[in-house]
Design a protein that fits this description.
3 helices, mainly alpha
Length: 100
């Protein structure tokens, strides 16, 4: 097969070889342009989907943060005595360190 290709190349004139090279380059350029348009369209579609999803995601994240903060404050409200005991223990320890 390689010998057939070499024989065909030897039979072709320089003008025909150049035309063939330019034809191949033209096909490659067209193929790459089509590929670029396809990738661009795909990225546009992904961006559009993300644009549709993003507001819902932000809402879910903010909702999670506020819900968690509410649970923490609710826990501290129910168990305020734990916080008070911790503060008192801290003050006592600081007082002991100053006396020593």
């Amino acid at each position: 097969m390689q010998s057939q290709i070499e024989n065909n190349e030897n039979r072709m004139s320089l003008k025909e070889r150049i035309k063939t090279i330019f034809a191949i380059a033209s096909h490659l350029k067209n193929g790459l342009a089509t590929l670029g348009r396809g990738v661009g369209d795909g990225l546009k579609a992904i961006g559009k989907k993300l644009g549709q999803i993003l507001p819902g995601m932000l809402g879910a994240i903010v909702s999670f943060i506020f819900r968690t903060a509410g649970e923490v404050l609710g826990f501290l409200g129910k168990h305020a005595w734990l916080l008070i005991v911790a503060v008192v223990m801290y003050v006592i320890e600081q007082f002991k360190k100053k006396r020593s």
